[in-house]
Amino acid sequence: MSVVCVDSCGWLLDSCSLIDECLQCCVSYSDGLEKPKYIKCCFKREYFNTLKPHGQIQQNTNILTSGVPLDSAKHSEHAKTDLQTRKKRKRKQPDLNTGELDAHIYHEKIRSVVLEGSRALLEAGRQCGYLTEALTAPPSESVQSHECCLAALCDMAKQLPLMDESVEAPVQTLNRDGLDPSLDLFSYITENPFDCAYEVTLMKERYLLPPRSRFLLSDITRMHPLVNSGDKFDLIVLDPPWENKSVKRSNRYSSLPSSQLKQLPVPALAAPECLVVTWVTNRVKHLRFIKEELYPYWEVEVLAEWLWVKVTRSGEFVFPLDSPHKKPYEVLVLGRYRRATDHADRSSAAEELPEQRLLMSVPSVLHSHKPSLSDVLKPYISPKPKCLELFARSLQRDWTSWGNEVIKFQHSSYFTRERAEEPSKTSETPLTQ
């Protein structure tokens, strides 16, 4: 389980635990071995070793400190200095543009929710030992991420002829010896049907595929294998590459104009009462687009807005809560697919979705590496659901994933590995379907 603790405000998540859980026994045919070897893989902890906030948080305004009171004289002097500094900044601050003003108004509306909800979750996290005041681990050296060429390969794949759309089951599966190197990763859904993870070679690189995971590597113009599979999903999670200035400056990945999101075949993929969840950056323009334009276009009824609150290993916000530049939270918009022609029994659609909740976790230092929502959303979807992630960069057990970098964070370089015991013959093994 990725849930460390839960209360009426939300959940504290351990983003690594769910990744590791399904990789405790992994079949590998590396090094030209004829027989498989079994390995245990864990996502490298240095990618989640954020020890200090990225910005300075004033001690007298930080509710996430250990609770030790400040000396009254020092506190008074510190507060006076802080007030003078803020007055100077206020005089120098230019008028806010429309977008900045909207962001300020939205922040003021949810600020108390973040503060109050965070207190209880952080206290629970400290009591169970997950968050610690006294950090003993040394700061990690700058971590290196694998250079990903998947998006470029998807662009090249556009030159290939389109797959025959009459193919009824555009799915290719692992066999006992892993993947056939001649398989087409861009035109077919690739599936690991076994109850064990597999380490396989794809395009001369090694990747870890979780049990019963499926993926399609393509861009938005080549999604027809997903639609043609005939699957209808009970949960669809989207993490769109939103346009913003930071992305343009860094050139980390290609962004997608909001208008093009309407091309996504969400209605064709959604089962009645499907829960649709979209990650949103802290631009009110994008939030408004989802609620007022995108979801209505897909016939998705907006039901809730949740917040992902990012904290350090010691329980501080990763950015000052009131920073004018970056906030320590992101928004999720949740809704249900409800066509006017559908007459589903809504009373049977699992638990009622709460309007506001916090998801709190130590974020990955890898860009756009979001925490899994599978454990959190279980009560709000049907039993044994079919789940889909769009714009995914990693895979999950029992999920289908799509994107032009869909296996990016499954690359073997992100994991530690050690030998594991071969499963007993009496237990279910990956070599029998």
How would you explain this protein's 3D organization?
This protein has a single domain, classed as Rossmann fold (3-Layer(aba) Sandwich), CATH 3.40.50. It is of the alpha/beta class. The C terminus is likely disordered. The longest helix has 30 residues. 23% of the residues lie in helices and 22% in strands. β7 and β8 form a beta hairpin. GO terms for molecular function: methyltransferase activity. This is N(6)-adenine-specific methyltransferase METTL4.
CATH topology annotation: Rossmann fold
The H/E string reads EEHEEHHHEEEEEHEHHEHEEEHEEE
> Helicity range of the residues?
10-25%
Number of strands: 17
Classified by CATH, the class is Alpha Beta
Q: Ranges with pLDDT <50 over ≥5 residues? A: 56-76, 426-433
Beta percentage is 15-25%
Largest sheet: 12 strands, mixed
Radius of gyration: 23 Å
Shape: globular
CATH superfamily: Vaccinia Virus protein VP39
By secondary-structure content and strand pairing, the structural class works out as: alpha/beta
How would you briefly describe this protein structure?
By secondary structure, this protein is of the alpha/beta class.
